[in-house]
Amino acid sequence: MPATYNASRISAILSLCGFIMGMDVTSLAVFLDKPYFNDYFHYPGPLVQGALSGAHPLGGLTGCLVYSLLCDKFGRVGLFRLGSLFWLMGSIIAVGSINTAMVIASRWIKGTNVGILSILLTAYCSEVISPQRKGRTLGFVQFACSFGILSMFCMCILLNHYWQEELTFRLAWSLETLPCLFFVFGSLWLPESPTWLTTVGRYEQAQEVQNHLAVEHNRVCGEKTPQMELLEKLDLAATLDDASDGFSYLDLFTLKYLPFTAMAAILQLLVQFSGISVLMYYAVYICEMVGLQSTVRSTAAAIPYAINVLLTLLPPLFLDRLRRKDITLAGAYPLALIMISLSLTMLLQGHRVQEPLGGNAALTWTVSSKGAPYVLSLCYLFVSVFSLTLGAAPWLYTCEILPVRARSKGLAVSMAVGWATNCVLTLAAPWLFARLQWAIFLLLGSVTLLISAFICAYFPDTVEIAAATDDAAAASRITKPERANSESPDHGSCTLSGSDDENGADKDPHNTPHYVNDSPSMSPVVGPTFKTATTETGLQKQLRHQHLQHLQLQKPIELSIVDGASL
């Protein structure tokens, strides 16, 4: 079946992945406080409740490991389909669950697919979607994820309204298979990543895919955005093949790449320690702590998911226009302060109870009716700020801050760190609610504040760095686009460099500043590791010798971004 090369259609198919990723967040939360659910599974305690919720991020961590083992052997589309198989298997086990062990196993298996997708979506978008539309695409995927969270929550509430028995959660978990089946069908139209095709030596197919992507991009965007320039297949092979030239996971921790690996991991730690997973997984706990009951409690717990959906529509409008670092910090600092304010409000307006609320051993703190509106308002404000900022920006930032050669494996490691943190927090949350009560939010807010200060002080920004295939070029400068020069050692890369005219800086109508590796704007943590590669690789020489005559007959391949006015 012929693939589609239209960015909008590709984004629509990938949005199904986002919807799948969001569904399992609330597929369990609705039932945790329901009498028939607790009676069927013999009233699980705080640790078992933590294991039920924590199995999902634990599966995410497993998915990162699966991706790291298979990313060089299977194509990107093949991994999409493999992850879908994990999801279908987990859903089948969930429907047939007769004890908590089976529920935990099913959520772990489904989480494995989510872990694979968390890396794969970012990597695939950076390899197939043009830089001008990458932020928009990931923004829509994030919106689909938020919509999946809300849709599953509402569907579970609706089913619970009609059937308050074990059929309710079995039917809800069975319906999770439908979006996955739709995505498997839609994946028939997804083009394979030209980057992966090149790294496995399938140059002709990579050239064909990349040519189609370039033509479609230029046709749709016209002169409104920078155009994609076509390069010869020789340049494609010489630049992208280096990404698979013996690079291992151990190389991520060498002096050259360790700063990038650390920055990517810290960004994922920021997202997790912000506390969004705790609020999303345990929203019903907070509603019960403030004294809400029955339908009012369900409605109040659904509001954060609705806010998340509505506000996630906005980031695609500005993600490609603002600095990644600015968006990240604009969300991180307020989120930290909101968390600290939430903890202080619960402390001043609440008290410990002798008997657990609703028979739930994890709930030993209650908030007075006077403080309840403030607690709920702070929770809603937190979700609003997160949706506008940390919902999508850190994922782009993580991808772009890693050099191309380290990107595939670096994403796997950083996402694994994020999923491991998510797993620990989700697993421990019921126990922390029982022991720390209000202080759990003070802990999360304080850690977020410290991480934010570190990012503000030491991290560079990446908004002007394209997906450069030359590590030194990617790391050493942030400059404006130019036409690639085939004589340059950087040629064939999507680097953003100065004009090829020696007076090009004077012609820049926007007076774009040029930064080099010793610029004050670059972090001292990463500066000393930057070196410039100026020699032609052995692979380039070999390919020039073996394929020169053949390449002259081939259509060139897109890899560069140039100014539309210069074409």
Could you characterize the architecture of this molecule?
The protein has a single domain, classed as Growth Hormone, Chain: A. It has 567 residues and is mainly alpha-helical. Mean pLDDT is 77; it is low at 466-567. It has a two-stranded antiparallel sheet. Strands 2-3 form a two-stranded antiparallel sheet. It has helices at residues 7-26, 35-40, 46-70, 76-95, 100-128, 131-162, 166-175, 177-186, 194-199, 203-221, 233-240, 258-273, 276-281, 283-289, 294-311, 315-318, 324-348, 372-388, 393-401, 404-435, 439-458, 471-476, 504-507, 538-551; strands at 227-231, 350-352, 365-367, 557-562. This is Major facilitator superfamily (MFS) profile domain-containing protein. Its main location: membrane.
For the structure shown, list the relevant keywords:
3% strand, Major facilitator superfamily (MFS) profile domain-containing protein, Growth Hormone, Chain: A, MFS_dom, Sugar/inositol_transpt, mainly alpha, 4 strands, 567 residues, membrane, two-stranded antiparallel sheet, MFS_sugar_transport-like, disordered C terminus
Compose a concise summary of this entry.
This protein has 567 residues and is mainly alpha-helical.
Q: State which percent range the strand residues make up.
A: under 5%
The CATH class, by name, is: Mainly Alpha
Strand arrangement, major sheet? 1-4
Helix percent reads 55-70%
Main beta-sheet annotation: 2 strands, antiparallel
- Stretches with pLDDT under 50, minimum 5 residues: 466-567
Number of strands: 4
User: Can you tell me the CATH topology?
Assistant: Growth Hormone, Chain: A
Please tell me how large the radius of gyration is. Answer: 25 Å
Shape: globular
Mean pLDDT: 77
Please, what is the CATH homologous superfamily? MFS general substrate transporter like domains
| Number of helices, where a helix is a run of at least 4 consecutive DSSP H or I residues | 24
Query: What is the helix/strand order?
Result: HHHHHHHHHHEHHHHHHHEEHHHHHHHE
Number of domains: 1
How far the N terminus sits from the C terminus, by CA atoms, comes to 34 Å
